[in-house]
Structure formats: structure tokens, C-alpha cells
Design a protein that fits this description.
alpha+beta; Thrombin, subunit H; Pdz3 Domain; six-stranded antiparallel beta barrel; about 35% strand; elongated
Length: about 500
């Protein structure tokens, strides 16, 4: 999973998150076999009737789909600060440099142009193109090259960083061949798919493969839901379409795994179809807002919370004055249903809430202390929340659990950028300890132990002493601006 979270965008732009995909040259050879013990030739059995188990021909699809796929070249203006040259600011070398060249401080350019490339697919004959946000984000100039080598300038119509989708439009009159958008929900694992794009600047390259999996979560964002395919996807394919055998777009190629041959990811086209009306009309996407921090339910959490299974989304924090708080949602609730549909996990709930119209009242099924109940919540408008980073301490961890604890004082809270002034700070975690194995980190703020609030380190130590003989502790912690439950398991 860590490799999946360190995914890279499949574009040629040099973003910090990008990595270079190494090309592996496969060397094939022939193996010659000899029979040393046989004195008689062995007659081969009659050959069975040849059966064509190979893939279908993609010739007709390639001919018909190519004109709807475009190459996107972007130019970005990036700023840089040139560092001072050590030893040249004063001293003999600096004086000599100024005598020959004058004082050139501030005369060097502070901006430079960077160029990158990606792919896109025409979705309207008026020249509207669907691509990835990371392909065009920050672009000062966009040039679109069609299959017939015609070039056009384009402009950004709308972007959605959360799903990495963007819409651009060609600044020219004309009729362009548009691709048909299919139904990614109907896509089945094992189906043949075609990826068309411009990997490494090689225009209109077609690769084939199958759908390896659906609903992949790779840590790309809050609305992860990727199609996994083994159709080769390389830098430059970003924003290009993934087609089914009916010639319909069922995904937008967006991500690859470093060194992960045969593993590529595409955004389901149904995600794009949901967002397109707002992207085109408003230039951005508005999303529903519930106002809770949620997490998935592991088997350990389910056991600690006396849940029957791991289905649903666990509420680790309810934001003040949010729709959830007004509806009566509480920390520790498990949301099992939203707007008449079951909730499988936190990712499914996040997507469902985001897609709900602002102002709509929906039923919310929850489990609280083993009891099922239904609340009605009025969906709000999503607003971003700033999170701070907790500083860490170098204290030496102690005790059975491998935790070094400190009281959260007002002064410490101020230095750590925290609003609360009560709680227990994890000052250190011993490597290999139960706390380390349970992913507790230095800098975490412990708010509860086994559903009981803790305000002082001494109180928590007593509670941990009283837990002798127990296999685990249920902790509620604050990390940055978020809260989450962690099961601390004994060694």
C-alpha cells in the first residue's frame, strides 16, 4: 500500500511527486533441447485443430478512435531564487568579480519556462477536451495537436484538483471528432481495453490490456476510485482515454506506480460525467459537506468497539456547527447508511456526501453503542479546513507500551499550534514497541483511552496500569488537524 500511495502522475511535467519510469528491455532467447537417452525417434501426436486464443484485432478501433485523442503541450512560468555565491559577497574574490563584470546582483532572471506534455480526449465537437488537472495546472500556454497534426491554442475551462480532472477548449471554430463516453460502472474485470495517448511524446500510441481491478484506492486523494489496468501507461499518457471494445471512453488514464510494470490507473469516466456540467458551466466543482472526520474500520477497531463487522465509516471527530453536529452525530458513531444506501467504508461515504446536492436533507443510518438509529442531516457546502503540524519531542520512550507521555500545557499547545490546552502529548515512541507497531507517532495528542477522556499524562499512565492483562487499548488521538481511533495492541 505504501508503494501505491507513492504513486506518480503519468505526465512529462517535472512535478515533485513525479518519478522517472525506467524502461526495461526484455531479452528473449531460444532454448535448444536434446534427448540423450532415446535411440528411437518418437512420433509426434497429431496436432489438434488450431484455436485462436489471441486478442481480437484492434485495427478498426484504432482507425476510428485516433482522431478524438489529442496531444497537449503546456508551457509554465516558474519562479526561482538564485542563491548567493559563497565567497563572492565581499572579500578579494567578490571585489575582483565586480571589477571585471560589475555588480550583477539582481540582474539574473528570476523566472524560467518549463514545458511538459500530456494527452486528452475530445468530448464535444466544438473542441471541448477532457484531460487531467495536473497536465494543465498552472499552464501559461496550452497547445493541442490533433491526430492530423493540426495545432490549436486552448484555454482552461474548469479544473478539479480533488479528482485530478480538467476541461480545456480549443480556441478555434470547427467540427472536431468527439469520443463517446461509456458507463464505467458496467465495466467488468477481465474486459479488454485500449489506452491511446502520447507517451514520451510519441503521438497517437495505442496499447492494449485488460481491466485488472476496479475501485482501487491508492492514496491519491479523498475520492480515490481507480480502474486498474495492465495496458501499458507511460509518462505522456496522462489525460488520455481508456476505451472499451465498443469504442467508448470508460476511463481517463492518470497514474502509474514507479517500477510497477503492468500496473496503471484510470479515473472512471462516470466520475467525470458527474463533474462535467459544473466544470464547464462554473469552472469548478461544488461538493456536499457533512462535517465529520471519518476512518475505515479495521478488525481490531471492530473488536474494540463491539461491532459485528467492519462495514461503515467510524466518526472520529464532529466539526463544530457542522451539518453533522446539528443532526446529532457524535464521535464514535459508525455511519452504516447514507441517503438510503448502505455505506461500505469511509471512501464510499466521502464520495456519496460530495455528490449530494447542497441543502438536501438525507437520512443517515448510524450505530451508537450497539444500537441502530436514523438521523436526518441537511447537507452543507464543503469548505476547506486548515491543519497545523504538531512538533515532535526527543524524549526517551518508557514503559510496556513504548510511550513517553507529557502533559499538554498552554505554552506547549501554543508552540505546537494547537487550539486545545488539555490532553496528553506523545513525546516519544520506542522503535519496535506496541505503540510503534500500532502506528502511534511522536507528536500525537491522546484524547481518550477506552472511550474515557484523559487530560493528564499521570491519569493515562494509571489507566494503562489498570489495563494489565488486556490485549489492547482503544486510543482516540489528534494528529495535525484530524482525530482518529487507533488500537494499541500489546506485544
Amino acid at each position: 500500500m505504501d508503494r501505491l500511495r507513492r504513486y506518480v502522475k503519468a505526465g512529462n511535467l517535472r512535478y515533485p511527486a513525479l518519478a522517472v519510469v525506467a524502461l526495461t528491455f526484455l531479452v528473449t532467447g531460444m532454448l535448444l533441447a536434446s534427448s540423450f537417452g532415446s535411440t528411437k525417434p518418437v512420433q509426434a501426436a497429431p496436432a489438434a485443430a488450431a484455436v485462436n486464443h489471441g486478442p481480437p484485432s484492434f485495427v478498426n478501433l484504432a482507425d476510428s478512435l485516433g482522431p478524438s485523442v489529442v496531444n497537449i503541450r503546456v508551457t509554465k512560468i516558474q519562479k526561482t531564487e538564485l542563491p548567493d555565491m559563497p565567497g563572492f559577497d565581499g572579500g578579494p574574490f567578490g571585489d575582483m568579480f565586480k571589477r571585471f563584470f560589475g555588480d550583477m546582483h539582481g540582474q539574473f532572471p528570476r523566472q524560467f519556462k518549463s514545458r511538459g506534455a500530456g494527452s486528452g480526449v475530445v468530448i464535444n465537437s466544438n473542441g471541448t477536451i477532457l484531460t487531467n488537472n495536473h497536465v494543465v495546472d498552472g499552464a501559461s500556454e496550452i497547445i493541442v495537436t490533433m491526430n492530423d497534426k493540426q495545432e490549436y491554442k486552448a484555454r482552461v475551462v474548469g479544473r478539479d484538483p480533488k479528482t485530478d480532472l480538467a476541461v480545456i477548449k480549443i480556441d478555434a471554430k470547427g467540427q472536431f471528432q468527439a469520443a463517446k463516453l461509456g458507463d464505467s460502472d458496467a465495466l467488468r474485470v477481465g474486459e479488454w481495453v485500449l489506452a491511446i495517448g502520447n507517451p514520451f511524446g510519441l503521438s497517437n500510441t495505442i496499447t492494449s490490456g485488460i481491466v485488472s481491478a476496479k475501485g482501487r484506492i491508492i492514496g491519491a486523494g479523498p475520492y480515490d476510485d481507480f480502474i486498474q489496468t495492465d495496458a501499458p501507461i507511460n509518462p505522456g499518457n496522462s489525460g488520455g482515454p481508456l476505451f472499451n471494445m465498443r469504442g467508448e471512453v470508460i476511463g481517463i488514464n492518470t497514474a502509474i506506480i514507479p517500477d510497477g510494470q503492468g500496473i496503471g490507473f484510470a479515473i472512471p469516466v462516470n466520475t467525470a460525467k458527474t463533474l462535467l456540467p459544473e466544470l464547464i458551466s462554473k469552472g469548478k466543482v461544488t461538493r456536499g459537506y457533512l462535517g465529520v472526520n471519518i476512518q475505515s474500520i479495521t478488525p481490531d477497531l471492530a473488536a474494540s468497539l463491539n461491532l459485528k463487522n467492519t462495514k461503515g465509516a467510524l466518526v472520529s471527530e464532529v466539526q463544530k456547527d457542522s451539518p453533522a453536529e446539528q443532526a446529532g452525530v457524535k464521535r464514535g458513531d459508525v455511519i452504516t447508511g447514507f441517503n438510503g444506501k448502505d455505506v461500505k467504508d469511509n471512501h464510499e461515504l466521502a464520495s456519496a456526501v460530495a455528490a449530494t446536492p447542497i441543502g438536501k436533507s438525507v437520512p443517515l443510518k448510524i450505530v451508537r453503542d450497539g444500537k441502530e438509529m436514523t438521523l436526518n442531516v441537511k447537507i452543507g457546502d464543503l469548505s476547506t479546513q486548515e491543519t497545523g503540524e504538531v512538533q515532535k519531542s526527543e524524549a526517551e520512550p518508557q514503559g510496556k507500551w513504548g510511550l513517553q507521555l507529557r502533559d499538554l500545557t498552554p505554552e506547549l499547545a501554543r508552540r505546537m499550534g494547537l487550539k486545545r490546552e488539555k490532553g496528553v502529548v506523545v513525546a516519544g515512541v520506542r522503535s519496535g514497541s506496541p505503540a510503534d507497531e500500532s502506528s502511534v507517532r511522536a507528536g500525537d495528542i491522546i484524547l481518550e483511552v477506552n472511550r474515557q477522556p484523559v487530560n493528564k499524562a499521570e491519569d493515562m499512565k494509571q489507566m494503562m496500569e489498570q489495563s494489565k492483562g488486556k490485549d489492547s487499548l482503544l486510543l482516540l488521538i489528534q494528529r495535525g488537524g484530524n482525530t482518529l481511533y487507533i488500537v494499541l495492541k500489546a506485544a
